[in-house]
Specification:
Blueprint lengths: L2 E4 L2 E3 L11 E4 L2 E3 L12 E3 L2 E3 L12 E3 L1 E4 L18 E4 L17 E3 L17 E3 L44 H4 L8
Parallel strand pairs: 1-3, 2-4, 3-5, 4-6, 5-7, 6-8, 8-9, 9-10, 10-11
């Protein structure tokens, strides 16, 4: 039987020691909780906030994440690609997303603020109007993704192949244009 939680705070809980109930969490806050390597499958998080949580290697198989904020979280290797895409809505602030997977997800208007994102996979994702504000995108893969009107003006260390992505209206700063030419072997000095 599924549980329902609304407007509750969960603080300092190590869910690797006590399981998180299956069910729906509506407008709940999780602070400094440990979810490392857990399967959070088939749970629903509506308008929830995760603050300073460890979600390293978390699996979200069939999980609904609607208007969820990850603030100051560790999400190394988190696999978002298997989330329920219906009403998927994510925001990230000051969270480590290295090695995470967002393959083929609808991520329109998603915000990534001040996030290290090395080797993240956005293959075939729709990142139209997404914002990468002060993000470090080392070896992040955008192959066959939609970046319509996406904002990369303050992002650094990205490599985006313009022949393998849709970039119409995307915003870039003059001093970081090398990331658009690197895949062509062009050297800028």
């Amino acid at each position: 039987m599924s549980s329902y939680y609304s407007d509750q705070e969960f603080t300092g809980i190590d869910y690797t020691q006590q399981p998180l109930d299956k069910g729906e969490y509506d407008n709940c806050t999780f602070g400094e909780c440990n979810f490392e390597s857990l399967h959070l499958s088939n749970r629903t998080f509506l308008e929830c906030t995760f603050i300073n949580c460890n979600l390293t290697n978390v699996k979200f198989g069939g999980t609904s994440l609607n208007q969820v904020l990850f603030d100051g979280c560790k999400l190394l290797g988190a696999d978002f690609s298997v989330c329920n895409i219906f009403m998927l809505g994510l925001r990230f602030r000051e969270s480590v997303l290295n090695l995470s997977n967002f393959t083929a997800l609808p991520l329109k208007k998603t915000t990534f603020i001040d996030c290290p994102m090395a080797e993240v996979d956005f293959t075939e994702a729709d990142l139209s109007e997404a914002r990468f504000d002060k993000c470090i995108l080392t070896k992040t893969n955008f192959e066959n993704s939609k970046l319509l009107r996406a904002d990369f003006r303050t992002a650094i260390d990205y490599t985006i192949n313009p022949t393998q992505t849709i970039l119409k209206g995307a915003l870039f700063s003059n001093h970081n244009l090398a990331g658009l030419l690197r895949s062509s072997g062009i050297i800028i000095k």
